[in-house]
Amino acid sequence: MNIENLRTSRPQHRVLKSKYLFAVQVIIIAVFVFASTAVWGVAPQTGSTLEVTGSIMSDSIEIKIGPSVGQVTLSGVPGVSDGQVFTSVNNLVVSTLQGDDSLKFFIESSDARIVVDTWLGADSVSIEMVTLPGVSQASAIFSFDTGTGDDVMEVKFDSNVSLFDVAMSFTRLTATVETAKVEFEQQVPGTVAMNLLADEAFALGILFAHC
Ligand SMILES: [Ca+2]
Q1: Nearest CA among 36, 53, 35 for reference residue 44
Q2: Total domain count for the chain?
Q3: Residue 172 Cα to ligand 1 middle (Å)
Q4: Angle subtended at Cα 135 by Cα 131 and Cα 136, rounded to the nearest 5 degrees
Q5: Chain centroid to CA 78: how far?
Q6: What does pTM read for this prediction?
Q7: Which of 31, 67, 178, 186 counts the most CB atoms within 10 A of its CB?
């Protein structure tokens, strides 16, 4: 190899090295992104929609809605600070991924819209909703997809309004024994419109009490 060839080969070597480093960086970033959405949770807010995603482990997540309108407080979401508060939220979408997850909602509000997907694992989901004083109407729209595993859903309402619209759906992927319990306490005279949709795998129990 003459001197001229040596001079021309060095830039090519640098180009190859640069491409190699770029590929390594891309792989590292891809692994980091995958790990960040799997081992840790995320909670991005887009407009009025908050999407909460748990980890692939067994999570114990608590979500408080209210008492201020649009306020949501998260605890137990890996990667998200406990007690972190979100505002102007009208729609809440929660996925717990794999693991035997515990998901609890405490709602002090007269309007709640929640979509839950518990993915794999034997999961438990509970919702307690209490309407605010001085409000005459309330609405709750809950959608549950329990994925695989035998899961337990419990929903309790404490109503102080004269008109309450409730719509809930319970679906699952492959589980054979699913349990859904609904308790409704109407504290004042009024009307409750409850629309329930559950597929055949759910043992659905409803307890209604009124003043
Ligand atoms: Ca999980």
Answers
A1: 53
A2: 2
A3: 16
A4: 105
A5: 13
A6: 0.81
A7: 178
Task: Please state which of the ranges 31-40, 47-56, 145-154 shows the lowest mean pLDDT.
Answer: 31-40
143 and 199 inside one domain: yes
Judge whether 72 and 85 are in contact, CB under 8 Å.
Answer: yes
181 and 143 share a domain? yes
Which residues are found with C-beta within 5 Å of the ion, ligand 1?
54, 59, 96-97, 99, 101
User: How far apart are the CA of 100 and the centre of ligand 1, in A?
Assistant: 7
> What value does the mean pLDDT take over residues 61-77?
97
75 alpha carbon to ligand 1 midpoint, in Å? 14
**Cα 179 to averaged position of ligand 1 atoms, centre (Å):** 19
pLDDT of residue 3: 46
